[in-house]
Amino acid sequence: MALLSRKQIEAADDRKWEDVPVEEWGGEVRLLGLSGTERDAYQQSLVILGSNGSVQRMNMADASAKLVAKCLVDEDFERLYTDKEVRELGAKNGKVIDRLFKKAQALSGLGKGAAEAAAGNSETVPSDGSTSD
Fold first, then answer.
1. Of 20, 12, 9, nearest in space to 106 by CA
2. Domain residues of the chain, as ranges?
3. Which of 10, 18, 57, 70 could be 132's S-S partner, Cβ–Cβ 3.0 to 4.6 Å?
4. pLDDT, tens digit, for every residue of 62-117?
């Protein structure tokens, strides 16, 4: 296999997305997996650092809705919810949010150890794969 150039890497369309039926809402939603930078920012948002830079505690408030909000997009792949609108999304049915959260995790390569890895409590983060386009 030939080595890729920077131009080839940057041109690759590698972000996965999936349209997910949400019967409770009467239709489908589109979830787009996070980029590497977005994923790191999401993980960092779950960690509260103390004044000395060490992990003070985990910030799990609206963690599921926060990820779903970052991944929910329209047909043009524009986000439906901003970071400031996470609470509105979090007020929806918890079962639906959980289902979408799990799908967003898989599309974004986040596993159960993601928050712990962000806090420095884990050496590796398991990555869930996706077969969707």
1. 20
2. 18-116
3. 18
4. 999 999 999 999 999 999 999 999 999 999 999 999 999 999 999 999 976 555 55
